[in-house]
C-alpha cells in the first residue's frame, strides 16, 4: 500500500509534498498559554507580512492543540530557532511530550512563553484568523521584539534540517 492520495484537483499529495519540500524555510516555535499550562508547536510556515503596521503570519492545523488554545487566547510568541537547535525543534514537533520540561523560557510581556535561547522572539496579538483548507492562517500584530542573537538560523529543506553555508 502506498501513501499516495489524489486530491479532488487530481494532484498527487506525495508529489505536492515533495515539491513544497524543495522550498527552504526557517524554523520557529509558536508558544502561548491557557489558564493551566504553556503550549507550543514547531512551525515552518512563518513569514513577515508588513512593517507598518508590524504584522506576521503562520499556519496551524485545525485540529492541533495550539489552535484550540489560540481560540481562547489572542496572545502568542514566535520563537525563531538558530542553527544547532534541531533537538528543540523536534521537542516541539512531537505530540505527547512535556515540551516545556527541559526548556529555558520566561513569560513575555503578553504572558506567552519566550524561549530564552531562541535566535529572536516576537510577541504577537492575533489580528485575524483565516480558514484555509485543513489549516488556519493566523495573522498577528507584533507588540514586542526580544533580543536578536547574532547566529545563523535553523533551516528546513527537503525533509531535513540544514545550515547556511556562506554568502553568494
TrEMBL record:
Alphabetical list of InterPro entries matching this protein: Flavin_Rdtase-like_dom, NADH-dep_flavin_reductase, Split_barrel_FMN-bd
Origin superkingdom: Bacteria
Keywords in alphabetical order: Oxidoreductase
GO biological process per UniProt: pyrimidine nucleobase catabolic process
GO molecular function: FMN binding; riboflavin reductase (NADPH) activity
SMART domains from the UniProt entry: Flavin_Reduct
Domain Flavin reductase like per the UniProt entry, residue ranges: 20-163
Short name of any one Pfam family annotated for the protein: Flavin_Reduct
Protein name: Flavin reductase (DIM6/NTAB) family NADH-FMN oxidoreductase RutF
Source organism per UniProt: Pseudosporangium ferrugineum
Organism phylogeny: Bacteria, Bacillati, Actinomycetota, Actinomycetes, Micromonosporales
Amino acid at each position: 500500500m502506498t501513501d499516495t492520495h489524489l486530491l479532488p484537483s487530481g494532484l498527487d499529495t506525495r508529489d505536492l509534498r515533495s515539491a513544497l519540500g524543495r522550498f527552504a524555510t526557517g524554523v520557529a516555535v509558536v508558544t502561548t498559554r491557557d489558564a493551566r499550562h504553556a503550549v507550543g508547536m514547531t512551525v515552518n510556515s512563518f513569514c513577515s507580512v508588513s512593517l507598518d503596521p508590524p504584522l506576521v503570519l503562520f499556519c496551524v492545523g485545525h485540529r492541533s492543540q495550539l489552535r484550540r488554545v489560540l481560540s481562547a487566547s489572542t496572545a502568542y510568541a514566535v520563537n525563531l530557532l538558530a542553527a544547532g537547535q534541531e533537538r528543540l525543534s523536534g521537542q516541539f514537533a512531537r505530540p505527547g511530550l512535556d515540551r516545556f520540561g527541559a526548556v529555558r523560557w520566561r513569560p513575555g510581556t503578553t504572558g506567552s512563553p519566550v524561549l530564552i535561547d531562541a535566535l529572536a522572539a516576537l510577541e504577537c496579538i492575533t489580528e485575524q484568523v483565516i480558514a484555509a483548507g485543513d489549516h488556519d492562517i493566523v495573522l498577528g500584530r507584533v507588540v514586542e521584539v526580544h533580543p536578536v542573537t547574532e547566529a545563523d538560523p535553523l533551516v528546513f529543506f527537503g525533509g531535513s534540517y540544514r545550515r547556511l553555508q556562506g554568502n553568494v
